[in-house]
Predict the structure.
Amino acid sequence: MDWAILWQYRAALAGGFAITLAVSALAILGATLLGVLVGCLRASHSYLLQRLTASYTELLRNLPLIVKLFFLYFVIGLPALPAALAALVLHQSAYIADVTAAGLRSVGRGQFDAGLSLGLKRWQVYRRVILPQVVRVMLPPMTSQYVSVIKNTSVVALIGVADLTFQTQQINVETFRGFEAATAATLLYMLVAGAVIAAMTRLQRRQVMR
Amino acid sequence: MHAVNGTLNPQVWIWRVLVAVALVLAAWLVASLDWSRVAPSWQFLLLALGRSWWLAIIAMTLGIAAAMPLALLRVYGPPWPRRAATLLIEAVRATPELMIIFWVYFTLPVVTGSQVSAWNAALGSLSVIAAAYLAEVLRAGLFSVPAAQREAARALGLKPVAVFRLVVLPQALRNMLPALIAQLVSLFKTTSLVYAIGVMDFFRAVSVTNNAVYAPYPLYLVLAAGYFVSCWTITQVVRRFDPAYQLLD
């Protein structure tokens, strides 16, 4: 064991960590926007939209992430970072769409009718009645979706994006101190996942108390 | 859904036309590609797809074997072993799959001093991943059996082991079957990552073929089709057991 190697490579590790953080944040944002949009269409009453969105999630969920990543990078020829982001967003948006659709379906039609009959406008029913209930149902599964995104970002190392996993590999190749580097990287990944879980739990608690 | 006031919903027709157009386009795409350079490799590619399946199935089996004691410890264990099991499960679940594969392949030999073959490293890391996720599936399954079942069996005079084996486990297994099969889909997709340490799985076989004959478009289609058909088949099995089950990853 030679933990000093971590200090020696602190700049590389910090840089890789920063890239992992940035890619995670952007991918979470993108996947949430796209996934919620597709999920809303999925829960709509239009037969065509239901079928189209079902095909979308079915196609994306049955392909491994790196198949999509390599398609965007090698076949389409996007630069590494956009390809990585697009692959992560597409991949997770399919799962988030399912979570959203299930959340929307969990709120009964009666809630909507009751809101209207109380004299609320349509947008008020959505804003005040439907949304809070949907968010409450969606928060726990969304937490695990976000943790998935953070873990999945490690795949971008395979197309040469210098993220945390890539730097760990680099340290291993240069110094054979892979154990120390992998331990540090694993702890950093857990730190990010832990932070996301803590933030989502806080959000959940605020939702319940309201 | 289909019949609205005796007539067919126009959207159903639009959807059918769209599907037909998509099928024609797909057929045209397949026909227009040059398959002559890929065709000689079909056996190699099919064998590699089989190897991916094999990897997923063995890892799943080993994973269940390891997940059982982990789940039992987490549910019924004394405080300290329970905490240890929880820590182990959560640590694996919070670590990227690729990282675990690298861990087992690159760092374990440094620690233990003996070289691990890529295949064994792949099998080991996939089993560890499967064990952690399956332990949670088993735990949820054990919790899905109401406590009254256990109490009733105890009141009938069954010993704790018999209660578990004859009453709790059969019900728990039935409840968690869809989730167990869903884990196989997830695991099958994860096998694509072992390409990074040099195992000749389906993903690597396709890229090796491409390096040899350079035919990215037909080969990419083969890659996507191989994974899609495999995962979709397992998904359909889940749907048979529980149409309402939500596949998450």
